[in-house]
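User: structure tokens for this one?
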Amino acid sequence: MSAPEPTDEPADPSSLGPDPEASDMPEDATATDDETPHPLGPIGASLDEVVDRAWDRLRGNPALDRLFYTASELGDFSLIWHLLGTARGVTLRGGTREAARLALALGAESALVNGMVKSAFKRERPIQSGERPHNLRQPLTSSFPSGHASAAFLAATLLSERSKVKPLWFGLATIVATSRIHVRIHHASDVVLGAGIGLTLGRLVRRVVPLR
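Assistant:
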């Protein structure tokens, strides 16, 4: 009996079993698409894009750069608000209680926003292309929401309680909060929500711990 002659015809793929390199992923699926959705949805994303595009006209102005970079740096760890609270505590009658209330409130706000709230969101900070005109600390936490904005409006709410110049406190808070947009460390929606949290916490503290 002679051996069967070899054949050049390819083997039937179905007879070889499943292909170990085959994937069940559809052809149009993207395995690396891990972008985190915007915390506020499409509306928030549109707001960020519009504000950043409009604000870009102000970046590069030496006076505005110096103002906003300085304000942003002073807002680190709520330094400016602790200094102002201490100054009022020394100069005003009954200011010690006011300064202590502000310091404790800022500590609680930082634990809440920078700890609990930020940990619930994994949002990337804005991309900075090119060198910054001034040095600035780059945070490692989530971008959403802005701790600078929440601390600023919490402090403004408390510092304005017995003040005759309330617009001054909120104007200063606005500069510190919006500085984070100017220096491209926060998106506009981060700042808006942060300011809202600060206002809410400030009113709550005023109700729970009244000065009079």
